[in-house]
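subagent[fold] <- orchestrator: predict structure for attached chain, return C-alpha cells only, no commentary.
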Amino acid sequence: IEELGAIMHKLTAQGKSIILITHKLKEVMALSDRVTVIRRGKNIETLVNRDTSVDQLAELMVGRKVQLEVEKAPRQPGEVLLEVENLRCLNNRKVPVLKGCSFDVRAGEIFAIAGVDGNGQTELVEVLTGLRKPESGQIKFAGKDIFKAHTKDIIEEGVSHIPEDRQKRGLVMSHTLAENAILGSHKKAPFSKNGIMDYPKIHEYSRGLIEEFDVRTPSENVAASALSGGNQQKLIVARELKRDPMLLIASQPTRGVDVGAIEFIHRRLVEQRDHGKAVLLVSLELDEVMALADRIAVIYDGVIVGLVEGSKATERELGILMAGGTLEKSAEE
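subagent[fold] -> orchestrator:
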C-alpha cells in the first residue's frame, strides 16, 4: 500500500492526474489533494484535503456523526470454547495450505487472526464451518469433537458464520430479503412445519430483523441483489447474530462497506463479546484487528507464527510476523 502511494505521488509530480475511488479514509487523507464525497448517487461536497479531517469526511459520507474509534471495556475471558490443534488441509489445487495450525478461542473474547491474504485464512474458516474437509488434526467446540462435522451440525451446535464473500457464501442473490433472513433456519419452527414454509411468520420475522439492524430497503420483498454491499452485509450480520450463537466466526466482516456500516458491525461484534460469547475475527485490515481484538494470532504459510495481546500489539510487530519474520530477530537487528 505504501509503495503504491509513493508511485502515485511520483506520477502526480510528473503532471499526471489520478482519480482515486475508495471508502478507506486513511488512504484518502494520505494520497489526495481534493476530495469529493458522494452519497446515494449524489455529489455531497468537494473539499481540499488539508482543510478537512477524517471525522468530517465520515460524517459527510454517512449523513451523521460516526464513531470511528472502537469503544470496549477490558474483559476477563472465560472458558475455552474452540480448540484447534495441528490442523492440516489442502486447497482447491490439492496443495497443502494449513500445515499444523493450532489455537484456542475463549468465551467473552474477540480472538483475531491476522495475516497477508493467501496464507490459509480462507481455508481455515471453511474447515471450521464445515465447508472444506481437513486432512488431519483436531477441532473441538464446547468439548465436543466437530472434526469433519457437517455445516448443518456445526450451526446446530451454536456456531454462526459471517462469510468473507457475502454474495457467494452469505446470500442467495435472486431470493428476497425475507427468504435470506432465515437461511440456515428455514427447516425449523416457526418458519416451516412438515416441510411447508410459513411465509406470514417469515415476513414478520424479517421485518423485525431489518428494523433492528437498520437494513436500508423498501421492504423485505426486495431481492438481495438490489441492496448495496453494506446493507447486504448488515442483513447477514443480523441473521447470524439473531441465532444467538456461542461462537461467531466473522471473516472479513467489513470488506467493501462504508464507514457507517463498519461502525455498526464493529459495535455488534463487541456486543457479542460483552455478552460472554466467543468471536473469531479473520481480517486483512490491521487497523480493524488492533481496534477489536483481545488476542491476535498471526498466520503465515498455514501456521500460527505469533500470538500477541491486543492491548499490547503494534503495527510494526504484526507486520514483521505477517511477512514471515520473528520478533526476536527484529529486536537483534
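orchestrator: received. Logging for downstream: The CA atoms of residues 81 and 143 lie 7 Å apart. The chain has a mean pLDDT of 91.
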